[in-house]
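Q: Got a minute? One more chain.
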Amino acid sequence: MLSFKRLGLLLRKHWIENYRIYLMGMAIIAGFTILIFLLVFYTEDGKIEDIFQMGYYSAGLFLCGTIFTSYIFNDFSQKPKGILFLTLPGSSLEKFLSLWLYATIGFVIVYSLIFYAIAIPFVKVSQSYNADELVRHDSRIQVLNFFQSEKEFYYLFFPYFFIQAAFLLGSVWFERFSFIKTAISGLLIVALFTFVNYIIGRILIGEESITAIPFHLLRHSYITARLPESIMSVIEFIAKYCVTPFLWFITYLKVAEKEL
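A: Always. Here it is, folded:
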């Protein structure tokens, strides 16, 4: 039975125990972001374009998000802390949710606030600095907008939450060096899928088949083989909306299993 009161207490306890390192991490992210924006401002004639912002936001989100996610269940790798965590009052679901909220929703919100708190003033200065060029060439110097329909930046969050869910599972699955082990496991799985796709291509098309996307497209000379759009729509739906919650559910089961 989920108790929001106990969940709130678990969230509060986690913050009290970790707020120093979290604040230090926020300061590091903010300082590094300011440094990169200053570097780009001076090397690109004062232009802070949305494409650069998207690239930096994405790189920081994936790198910092996966590292933080791997850290979040760090107590499991230390027996005394792990035993203490598992014996806390509350259900397995409440304990899982208390850490999941920090690693998933909490991190994205905090990271985005830090990014925009720095990006907005830099873009304003950039717009003023390039005011004449903006009038002449209609340059796209603007604050990154994830919901701009023609660019569809928001699609970034589908692969991010999938990869983040994989690292969250890895942080529970592996007791030590979970970040490294999860990254290596992920690369091996991708390599396996690519190899299987290559074998299928050789069987269907020929020895010199070229694979582009596993289980999506095969190309050989002037011959191209694709999955039907109806099947691709189903695969896309599963990839976007089912795989990530499934990984979160498996992580919850692992937490419950450790408690038993």
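A: Residues 4-43 form the longest helix (40 residues).
Q: Perfect, thanks.
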